[in-house]
C-alpha cells in the first residue's frame, strides 16, 4: 500500500522568534506546490503561534514537541492540547527519546500523553527506539514491542489510524550515526507487523512510520526508498533551510 510521505522537522530547543519566523518562511516557500507529501514543523512552544502565523495559508502542519493530557490545570511547565490548538498546532510529538532518556518519562506517562492528544483531536507522532546497549544486546525488537504495547494501550482502532509512529534508534540521534537502510527497514517492518497484531492489518498498512536518527540530504533518498519507511523525523538538518528543503524534496 502506498502511504503519503511525511517529512517532519523537530527544532528541539532551538530558535528565537526571529530565527523561527525566517526558517519557517524559507521552508514554507520550498514546500509550496508539493502535492504528493506532507511537511510538518515542531518548533519550541515559545514560537508556535508565530510559526503558525508565518505559514498560514500553506499546507505545512504544525506540531508541539510534547503535550499534556489535560486541557488546563496545575501542571507547571506543561502545555495543554487546547493551548497547542489555539496556537495553530494540529499534532504533537510524544515519547521522543530525549523525553524518555533525559527527563525519565515512562511508558505510563507517555501513554497518557498519547490518549490525551487523541482525545483533543491532535495527531500523535509517537516515538519508539532502542539504545546502543539494547541493540548490541540484541534486544531491539523486545524494546520496540514493549514501547509500542505500553505506549499505545487503550488506543482505539479508529484513533490508531490517525496516529503516526516514528522509529528513532537512540544511538543514531545527534551522533552522526545513521542506521543503515537495511537496519531501518527491518525495524520498520517489525513495527508494522506488530501493529497488525495489536490492531488490524488494514490499520497497520495505513499507519505512517517515520525514521528519525541523523537524517540528512545525503541519506534521505535511500531511506525513503525502503518499503516500510514513510517519512522522516529530522533534528539537526531541520534547522538549516537548505538541508531540510532537500530532505523535503527527496527523490
Please describe what this structure looks like.
Homodimer. The active site is at 96 (electrophile), 168 (proton acceptor). One of its GO terms (biological process) is gluconeogenesis. Pathway: Carbohydrate degradation; glycolysis; D-glyceraldehyde 3-phosphate from glycerone phosphate: step 1/1; Carbohydrate biosynthesis; gluconeogenesis. InterPro entries: Aldolase_TIM, TIM_sf, TrioseP_Isoase_bac/euk, Triosephosphate_isomerase, Triosephosphate_isomerase_AS. There is one protein chain. An eight-stranded parallel barrel has the order 1-2-3-4-5-6-7-8, surrounded by five helices. 41% of the residues lie in helices and 14% in strands. The longest helix is centred in the C-terminal third of the chain and has 18 residues, at 181-198. The chain has a domain at 6-127 and 143-179 and 207-221: Aldolase class I (TIM Barrel). It has twelve helices and eight strands. By secondary structure, it is an alpha/beta fold.
How many E-type strands?
A: 8
* Percent helix: 40-55%
Given this structure, which CATH class of the domain at 6-127 and 143-179 and 207-221 is correct?
A: Alpha Beta
The run of helices and strands is EHEHEHEHHEHHHEHHEHEH
Organism: Desulfocapsa sulfexigens (strain DSM 10523 / SB164P1)
Function: Involved in the gluconeogenesis. Catalyzes stereospecifically the conversion of dihydroxyacetone phosphate (DHAP) to D-glyceraldehyde-3-phosphate (G3P).
Keywords: Cytoplasm, Gluconeogenesis, Glycolysis, Isomerase
Family: Belongs to the triosephosphate isomerase family.
Amino acid at each position: 500500500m502506498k502511504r503519503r510521505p511525511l517529512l517532519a522537522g523537530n527544532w528541539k530547543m532551538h530558535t528565537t522568534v526571529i530565527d523561527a519566523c525566517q526558517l519557517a518562511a524559507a521552508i514554507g516557500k520550498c514546500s509550496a506546490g508539493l502535492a504528493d507529501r506532507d511537511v510538518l514543523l515542531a518548533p519550541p512552544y515559545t514560537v508556535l503561534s508565530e510559526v503558525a502565523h508565518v505559514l498560514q495559508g500553506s499546507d505545512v502542519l504544525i506540531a508541539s514537541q510534547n503535550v499534556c493530557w489535560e486541557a488546563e490545570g496545575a501542571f507547571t511547565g506543561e502545555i495543554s492540547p487546547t493551548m497547542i490548538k489555539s496556537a495553530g498546532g494540529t499534532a504533537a510529538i510524544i515519547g521522543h527519546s530525549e523525553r524518555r532518556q533525559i527527563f525519565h518519562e515512562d511508558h505510563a506517562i507517555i501513554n497518557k500523553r498519547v490518549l490525551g492528544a487523541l482525545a483533543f483531536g491532535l495527531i500523535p507522532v509517537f516515538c519508539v527506539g532502542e539504545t546502543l546497549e539494547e541493540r548490541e544486546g540484541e534486544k531491539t525488537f523486545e524494546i520496540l514491542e514493549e514501547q509500542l504495547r505500553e505506549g499505545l494501550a487503550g488506543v482505539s482502532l479508529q484513533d490508531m489510524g490517525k496516529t503516526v509512529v516514528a522509529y528513532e534508534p537512540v544511538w543514531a540521534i545527534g551522533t552522526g550515526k545513521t542506521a543503515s537502510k537495511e537496519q531501518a527497514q527491518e525495524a520498520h517492518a517489525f513495527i508494522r507487523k506488530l501493529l497488525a497484531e495489536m490492531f488490524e492489518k488494514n490499520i497497520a498498512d495505513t499507519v505512517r512510520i517515520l525514521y528519525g536518527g541523523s537524517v540528512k540530504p545525503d541519506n534521505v533518498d535511500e531511506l525513503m526508498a525502503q518499503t516500510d519507511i514513510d517519512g522522516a523525523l529530522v533534528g539537526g538538518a531541520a534547522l538549516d533551510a537548505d538541508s531540510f528543503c532537500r530532505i523535503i524534496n527527496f527523490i
